[in-house]
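Researcher: Re-running this chain for the archive, since the previous output was lost when a drive failed. Same request as before.
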Amino acid sequence: MIRRWLSVSIVLLVIFILLEVFLVHEEGHVTFFWSHIKGFFTLFGFLGCLLLIVFAKLIGHYWLQRKEDYYDRNDDE
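Model: Regenerated structure tokens:
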């Protein structure tokens, strides 16, 4: 299942980069050097989403998740 999602994500990433290369024409002033790199913002958004997902899973696992007997145990003993 994970391999399927990963392959679909990679295919969509390649499609969006190709669309940006062939369809987007930059006009106006660009002040940053990375704005000239084709596919940069697509890759930046994709990696940003992956980072958010991994960070949310880590927070959920190490900070929010409790053991099954969290409310049943008696800490006074």
